[in-house]
Amino acid sequence: MAAHREAAHRKPRQRLFTGPAARTAAAVALAGAATATALEGAAQADPQLTPAQVKAKVDRLYHDAEVATEKYNGAKEQTAASEKSLDALRDEAARRTERLNTARDALGSFATAQYRSAGVDPAIRLALSSDPDEYLERAAYEDRAGDRQAGAVNGVRRQISDLAQLRERAEDELEVLSSRRADLKKHKDAVRTKLADARKLLATLTAGQRAAYERSADAAHGGSAVRAARDVPRGSVAAPNARAAQAVAFAYGALGKPYVWGATGPSSFDCSGLTQAAWRAAGVSLPRTTYTQINAGQRVSRSELAPGDLVFFYPGVTHVGLYIGGGQMIHAPRPGAPVRIAPISEMPFAGGTRVA
Predict the structure, then answer these.
(1) Measuring CA to CA, which of 51, 147, 297, 346 is 20 to 30 A from 130?
(2) From the record, what ranges are coiled-coil (predicted)?
């Protein structure tokens, strides 16, 4: 009984506010929660980045953009291959369709002629012949005509089947092409996003801070192309063969040209575009991306490098340059940094490849 009275005594306390009072209390509670959230968000907001932090983030964004660029280059190469394959399939389908139509026309003409002469059975026409030699000759002709007709029909059937298979292959290739185009767009968007983020970060710096960043980046990448070219004379280390010498000569000729992602020359380059163009000038065809170029020849150690060798950097093999001897390479570093000479020690070395 006492427990019952105690429970009854507690019941009114469960409804402190009703009606307008309850709504007022709820509004106050929500406002308080919103204020607390805002204060918490303000407390968690990133502080103003220092120039050093901006530099570190920009460098990382440029590196990420280069990773995305190589993926874009690979997707672009695959897309071009799919487009070429699809065009070849469509051309073959057009040729086979033309041959099929010709065969159908011939079969139609044969059927029309047979229909016109179908009033008399072939056996009766042959039997009515009074000349035995003529009978045998006509009989052989009719057999051959029947064989030709059957062969023509079978030929048309085969062509229809082959054409259907060819069109099915073209549809499959079209699906592959659509997928590769989607990959191409994804990687292109990734590059553009990374570069736009880098530009936004650089815009937070003062003009003097941006100039200091460019000077530090220039020093980290081996200085200006003109100064580097003067510091490392051409021919100071002999190339092992004529083709390697041609590739090196091309790279020297590209010094000072701008870095443009996805570019393979002649007026601008990205890193793998430069090495591909250099060896193309020497008559050697290299694949498009860093991660395929590293397998385009014989692997060599850092101590075995010779002018003309490809040198690769970072664990994901995302950057490449052309070795010119003396611990130096010519490479296309990043947006805003033109083709230049730099020490191979400036980045994490991932491997070397001797092309020819």
Answers:
(1) 147
(2) 72-106, 153-187
Buried b (16+ CB within 10 A) or exposed e, 180-204: bbebbeebbebbeebbebbeebbee
pLDDT tens digits along 269-315: 999 999 999 999 999 999 999 999 999 999 999 999 999 999 999 99
- On whether the pTM is more than 0.90, the answer is no
Cβ pair 330, 220 in contact under 8 A: no
Q: State the Cα–Cα distance between residues 278 and 230, nearest whole angstrom.
A: 20
Q: Edge-to-edge, what's the strand order for the sheet holding 298-300?
A: 298-300, 349-354, 310-313, 319-325, 328-331, 340-343
4 tagged catalytic: no
- β-bridge partners, 106: none
Beta pairing class for 298-300 and 340-343: unpaired
Q: What CATH number is associated with residue 121?
A: 1.10.287.620
The Cα 322–Cα 331 span in angstroms is 6
**In the predicted model, what is the mean pLDDT of residues 159-165?**
87
My answer on whether 66 and 126 are in the same domain is yes
Q: Please give the distance of CA 88 from its chain centroid, rounded to a whole number.
A: 21
pLDDT in tens, 167-207: 999 999 999 999 999 999 999 999 999 999 999 999 998 88
